Amino acid sequence: MSGKEGMQVPLAQVADVGFAPGAPMIRSENGYLNDLVSIDVRGRDVGGYVAEAKGIVARKVKIPPGYRLEWSGQYEALERVKARLQVVVPLTLAVIALLLYLNFGTVTETAIVMLSLPFALVGGVWAMWLLDYNLSIAVAVGFIALAGVAAETGVVMLLYLDHAWEDITRDGRAPNRAELLQAIEYGAVNRLRPKLMTVAAIMLGLLPALWSHGTGAEVMQRIAAPMIGGMVTSTILTLVVIPALYYLWRRRGLESYRDDEPGQGSTSRSGGLFDSVSFTY
User: Fold this and answer.
1) CATH number of the domain enclosing 162
2) 149 and 203 in contact (C-beta within 8 Å)?
3) What whole-number distance in Å separates Cα of residue 71 and Cα of residue 64?
4) Per the confidence metrics, is the pTM higher than 0.85?
5) Is residue 36, in this structure, part of any structural domain at all?
6) ∠ CA 181-169-104 to the nearest 5 degrees?
7) What are phi and psi of 251, to 5 degrees?
8) What are the Cα distances from residue 146, in Å, to 85, 138, 190, 191, 275?
């Protein structure tokens, strides 16, 4: 560099020159200078990684006054969506409960379907564990869709059971426990074939998405996985748990319980009930 009188002054005499690690690029955002540090998270969910990283940074890094640290990128988008899901999911469940009540007209049957949803979602959790998928937005969408399908199949099962109950209580008739049990078995068996057809159609339709590759495949796989796993437990739930809950509910409502005795209109479990009571669908 040149001095006042045109003399050449070495830069080392007026400044310390050296190499030091620093930001490759500094940009401004909202009127503040900022620097970006990119992190590639592989094999872990973004939310869990950031939560752990926040704890480590808080313990080992002292941020000078005037500086601030923000976690952005996919984590920021995930937090925004999580905040929306905290409103959307309860609202969705509330709408499902309202529609169920308008359909059945009783709080008990609405509760039977709503309380059965967690059991239907167990299969989705197992599928996520077996495939080693982390919780994400796509997975949440898959669970919401699974809840809707499980509620739909539960509604159809309850309709069959209600029809069977109406037939054995026709003309004010008070059935006994054996007749109630036979009617529930009859209604549940009628639901077996359509339930298996529904499960097969849904699973066969989602398997290509689960095995797909290419652009957008990761998102589709995480939507399809909980639905496929959940349909397995939903089938068991609909065919076993809901009829059992329905039996316990209707049994409490019977005016009297009569033992099966010959000549009093009661029948054995061999099918005599269906000789005297006509089931129409």
Assistant:
1) 1.20.1640.10
2) no
3) 17
4) no
5) no
6) 85
7) -65, -35
8) 15, 12, 23, 19, 40
Which domain covers residue 128, as residue numbers? 74-276
Structural contact between residues 107 and 191, judged by C-beta atoms closer than 8 angstroms: no
Question: Three-class SS of residue 113?
Answer: helix
Q: Which residues contact 144 (CB under 8 A, 6 or more apart)?
A: 88, 89, 92
Query: β-pairing, 32-34 with 27-29?
Result: antiparallel
Count of C-beta atoms within a 10 Å radius of residue 160:
22
User: How do residues 9-42 score in pLDDT, each as one tens digit?
Assistant: 787 788 888 887 776 777 777 777 777 777 777 7
pLDDT tens digits for range 90-104: 888 888 889 888 888
Q: Has residue 1 been placed in a domain?
A: no
Please give the pLDDT value at position 259: 42
Q: Which residue in this structure is represented by tokens 């739909």?
A: 152
Question: What is the rounded average pLDDT of the residues 237-251?
Answer: 83
Q: Is the four-CA dihedral 233, 198, 166, 181 of positive or negative sign?
A: negative
Q: Is 189 within the bounds of a domain?
A: yes
Residue bearing tokens 């959307």: 88
